[in-house]
Specification:
Blueprint (H helix, E strand, L loop, with lengths): L12 H17 L25 E5 L5 H11 L7 E5 L18 H4 L21 H21 L2 E7 L6 H6 L4 E4 L11 E3 L4 H17 L3 E7 L28 H18 L5 E4 L6 H9 L5 E3 L7 E5 L2 H4 L8 H11 L6 E5 L1 E2 L4 E2 L2 H16 L6 H16 L4 H21 L5 H6 L17 H4 L11 H6 L3 E2 L2 E2 L6 H17 L8 H33 L1 H5 L15 H25 L24 H14 L14
Parallel strand pairs: 1-2, 1-10, 2-3, 3-6, 6-7, 7-8, 9-10
Antiparallel strand pairs: 4-5, 11-12, 13-14
Amino acid sequence: MEHQKKDTGNVSLYTSLTVIPVILIIFLSSFNLSGASSGFAKKGNIDSGGKIKRTFILHAPIRNLAEFEKLVKQAVRLKPYGKVEINISTLADKSFYEKPPGRNPWYEYAGNNPTPYKFFPDSRIAPFIPVEFVKKNRQLILAKAKILRVYGLEAAFWCYEPNFLPDAFFNAYPHMRGPRVDHPRRSNHPAFAPCISVKETQDMYANMVNLLVRNVPEINTFFFKTNDAGSGICWSDWQYSGPNGPAHCKNLTMGLRVQTLMNTFKAGAGQAGKSIIIYLTGSMFSAEEKEDIYRHLPENCFFQSHNSDKVKGINSAIVSYYPVKGFFNPLEILNTLNSVNKISGNTIFISFRASYDRGYERLEATDQLIGMIEGYFADPPAEGEIATLQKLHKLCEKWAGIEYADQLFDAFVVLNNADKFRKVTLRSVSPMYWGVSTRQITRPLVFVPQQLTTEEEKYFLPYIFNVSENEARLDYTDINGGHRTIQPGVMEQFLHKIDQVCLLFENVPPSAPEKKFIENMTTALKIYRSIMRSAGNFAGAQVIRDRNKDKLNGPAHRPDKIPTWTGDPDLLRFNEIMRDELDNAQELIDLLENGGMDMICHADDSLHEDTFLLGPDLIDQIKQKRKIMLKHWTDIEGYMTTPFK
């Protein structure tokens, strides 16, 4: 389609929002000739040379060294604005040895968990970890450190601690057994972490951190998560199994426990002659525990969940939109950067990581996002919403060209509004959990799933996040052990907003400087739309199935012979949902066959497909979904009356 020049009388959102306020901003800024951003910084942010002190910590679980080097080259552009560290703790491969047999999807959380013992295990742990596994992890981290040295960047180490250990370890060292950390509704085999209050545990951790830092002296920052996804601390209020642990440490406060853990890390680094900064991030604690942890933080240790004024996070869309990658919300990024200029610590975590180290952002998108951050600090906007919108418009001029900048600007404003709507009305609808770990992307939507054969189920049922195979089969909206719903009409409103964004993206002409990136963002957004559409369809289908559970629990039967034009209303509604999902699946196939596979995270081989990672044959699986749905299209007619006259 040929693009016509836009009518100059067609006022964009940007023009209508900014024309009058811009005059006011220009007038007010004349009173601050020293620079609009100078009022943002606090005294604690300024070093002896008058520059704002910042640390950028980038996180992307990349195994491919060539791709890692590309990210490093991109990150170098941030060096003029602060110290740059890149996380290098990604495992070389999944911890296959950890998962017990049977339906234990909780262990998939932890399959890629980095922890010092998987790189430099203490002599007490080493006999229980595969030697070749440790060797490959060590080779990868050392190779990454070498790349960082070449480009003058430093390193960070992200992990889960105290991470659970093999059963055999606690058989050998029973006095070191700490809390049960698995989720009883998500696993059929208990997992235990070591008790940090035991002196031998402290010595073991200190030794491993010593070995880690001694071998990788580039590491300056150690950041860890606990009480979730494979890790836990004794007697914590929010352990999945409830507060638990050995009796000897029951009366310690959580602040003292975390203090001991952090001091243990510091002691290990000190043995290697290194002082490290430690962050406790994104962990599960009660409000009382958070306050106590904050009161007991050692020097150079921080609690990101509590004193968030000292730490900011910038995320690409993959963090929330996984398994989709390749786009982000620039207005949200700019608003986050505005808040960065107001914090005292100025540590900025930039996450390109998702799904427990299963996926990372496309390097094309990381390049654009890092470029945004670079551009922001090179020319910070004045304080205020209008200045932020002006900054966004400049970015749109760079990406779409001056003539079509307004249109791209409008698209990003609508995207930001859609994100706000989602966070309020669809907060619990995660595409990772609904689309991937419940396999709504690939499983057939049918009225009587128990009529599927073993052959028809084998490509999706084993991966569904549920310890009960029957519940996994029958409950379309059992998300991590809880039955979920979506309010009627909400998903349709959200999808309409996404359609508006895609339409605006598509109207950016081929001559745009970053047309390819905009096209890829459009494809990614359409894939995301498809996954959310599936969530709405499966939620609606399950409501109907729940409402008719008595019929479904009985035998299939022929409908009665009383003439009716309408039939059973639920039959008509279910057929409508089923048809929409059939069409949605075909549209997703079309997207994936036309370059979309690059915009969705998937395994490179069948061995690595798991609860949180789609298979390499994703397109074939969705085709199988459609085939099975059509085969079972009339199953519902054995339980509900069809229209006839």
